[in-house]
Specification:
The chain has 236 residues and is α/β, with parallel strands linked by helices. The chain has helices at residues 15-26, 56-70, 93-121, 144-163, 189-193, 204-216; strands at 6-10, 30-35, 46-50, 75-78, 124-129, 169-176, 224-227.
Length: 236
């Protein structure tokens, strides 16, 4: 019998992360879901592991729990991240530390720990959630530290894709525009919708759909899919 595939999703307790967990479950995967505040639910196919992904010990615990419970790791979705938009001169040292630790160190720890298991299997898929602003900045929406850190993930996606191209491990990313999640109050939606050429915000399901496309696209690696209502295409 074919063994059930297993995905690890970081930043999984709400918003995009919760939507990704749901999408993978609907596609038959077992999921290890991790975030600082996540709690166990009724679905036995979802293993919740609480902790701060910027800490290497948490990443080690997530990987160990996945292997103990399900015996394998097929996909890693690096969704955990912090986005702080403000003028560059107004960022604080705490902003720099927090965004670097979560966006970059969090990615580094869990990805480095997952890769050896994928390499032994000769198969695996790693996906980063970045931001479309990496490809097209928007006047009036300063986000220097977000670009610095998420831009690093965008670059390393291509680097790791080439490094592991002949091992069976693929590496891709999805770059969202502004997605309708609880972090955006309803009263901001009209303004945020206007920041996309298509005139609306994105939906969580649309990010999950892009990830699942990449999951099944066996000949695609090193790719970033912009799910942004056309933001990356240029000025409008």
């Amino acid at each position: 019998m074919q063994q059930q595939k297993v995905a690890i999703v970081t930043g999984a307790s709400q918003g995009i992360g919760a939507g990704i967990v749901s999408a993978y479950r609907k596609n038959g995967f077992a999921v290890v879901a991790t975030s600082r505040s996540i709690q166990s639910g009724a679905d036995e196919g979802v293993l919740a592991v609480a902790g701060d992904i910027r800490e290497r010990a948490v990443a080690e615990r997530v990987v160990a729990a996945a292997l103990k419970r399900f015996g394998r790791i097929d996909t890693l979705v690096n969704n955990a991240g912090i986005f702080i938009g403000k003028p560059f001169t107004e960022y604080t040292v705490d902003d720099l530390r927090n965004m670097t630790e979560v966006n970059l160190a969090g990615f580094f720890h869990i990805t480095q720990l997952v890769l050896p298991h994928m390499l032994r299997q000769r198969s695996g898929h790693i996906v980063q959630i970045t931001t479309t602003l990496v490809h097209q900045a928007i006047a009036g929406a300063p986000a220097g530290l977000a670009l610095l850190t998420k831009g690093g993930l965008d670059a390393v996606t291509r680097g790791l894709a080439i490094e592991y191209a002949q091992t069976g491990v693929r590496v891709n990313s999805v770059a969202p525009g502004i997605i309708k999640t609880p972090m955006h109050p309803a009263e901001t939606h009209a303004v945020l919708a206007g920041m996309h050429p298509m005139g609306r915000m994105g939906e969580v399901a649309e990010i999950a759909d892009a990830i699942l496309y990449l999951e099944n696209a066996a000949f695609v690696t090193g790719e970033t899919i912009n799910v942004d209502g056309g933001q990356h295409a240029g000025r409008w």
